[in-house]
Amino acid sequence: MKYSKQREIILRALEMNVIHPTADELYKLIIKDFPSIGLATVYRNLNLLAEKGIIKKIYGLDDAAHFDHNTHNHHHFICTKCNKIYDVPYDIASDIADNVWKKTGFSIEKTELSFHGICKNCQTKN
Amino acid sequence: MKYSKQREIILRALEMNVIHPTADELYKLIIKDFPSIGLATVYRNLNLLAEKGIIKKIYGLDDAAHFDHNTHNHHHFICTKCNKIYDVPYDIASDIADNVWKKTGFSIEKTELSFHGICKNCQTKN
DNA sequence: TCCTAAACTGATAATGGTTATCATTATTAA
DNA sequence: TTAATAATGATAACCATTATCAGTTTAGGA
To answer: How many whole angstroms separate alpha carbon A112 and alpha carbon B80?
Structure first.
């Protein structure tokens, strides 16, 4: 894995954004400061960084994959009104993978847990 | 919602298959006995049946959405070796949605929980 | 039974997110 | 400095899914 300016910019941009962006969203943010970057480069590097465990790829929130610079164990909540994505602390269900192993004998490599609903902010708005 | 032969066939085909098929997989099974059915009809009806709560749509297992005739509360495990999808009993984490509500105040409409790893069968093969 | 409105169908075009391809450029270690 | 190789940007291709639409089927009166 060689250094590249583009990869650094992508990683920095992700770190600066708490919004758990999709590849395309991040691309649109980056081209404001770095118009020459290509969309494929953004996809490529986000996947590469996720493979290396430097960032995290989140599935199942909506049609597109989202990315998260926070690699610590945690889950996600997406509000069906405002579409904002929130972090959900890991300890709401810290032993699920272990429970599955005990019950099924399957070895768990990855646990994908996400919630859909209405966030507190949107609840009070109505 | 009017009766249609196609919808009945689709539902029956899903009920007869424990494999949690994608729309396309189910389509390929159905055309063996009912070659005139259209792919769009399969997609349409699976989505409709899922909306009505008659079947369940599963996200986040892989790129495609899978469907399940079992509407009871449960989760899923996909084996990264054989790609088989297994049911995971609900009680490994029955209070997670409630926990999230207590911690965050977000109202939870849907909880998506899936596991990736190696199933027992594939473990013993090595 | 016949009629009509609404739902449904199959074929196919369009969409949207993502990956593959490829010629060119940048990085790195010797 | 050079040579190997990784990375880039543009764009074509891919794949799952949805939209469109003309023709067909269903269902509940008249």
So the answer is: 14
